[in-house]
Amino acid sequence: MSNKKIRFLFLIILVLFLYFINNKKEESPNGIHIDSDHYPIHGIDLSEYSGNVNFSNLKNEVDIDFVYLRASAGKNYKDKNLERNYKNAISNEYLVGFYHYYRFNEDPIKQADFFLSCIKNKQNTLPYVIDVEDWGNKSGNKPKKEISKEIELYIKHVKEKTNSEIIIYTNESGYNTYVSEKLDEFEIWICSFKRDVKINNHWLFWQYSHKGKYKAIEGWVDLNTFNGGEEEWKEFLKR
Fold it and tell me: I want to staple 189 with a disulfide (CB 3.0 to 4.6 A). Which of 19, 32, 75, 205 is the partner?
């Protein structure tokens, strides 16, 4: 075999290898498996990134105890699938909650009011959630303590308008940076792909995977669990 053919063959093998690695990276679930006996309450959270959801088929496919829907992001972005997801989740008798992706570089009160406008006249069984994370978030030169104060302003505003408790969704980095000192009184929905969730606060929900996959959902879906068993879940819902 000539050197030219060998180089061509090597190039083909290299391209196939890189494609396999890249494809494997995209298709492999991102997260861990949890012990369902220890954590029997399961939920998902959805946004437009999850694509179309057939809630009727989903109910036949898997037991899900709760669904959180992204309502909004920043001061003026409404999730494209909010209305459809809400209507179909409610019609299939899912317990529904709403969350807002908080932007560090936008006014907290304007964000709170916009979130409330997006969920107006919608029933929610679960507490409202503010999503606090660095990923995709622009803060400019704003000090971290100032960001924490503005998050607190957002939370207080939503609580005053709704008389509802607020949960903070964040990962371990976000918790340590923005939450642990100033906002430690609030219950936490922690995102962590570790089996030992290392935060000081008592966490309420745990997001353990970004890439759950069901036939009834077009794209990837986030997987979550509740910190407690059936009885604790019933008590939580009574609140």
Answer: 205
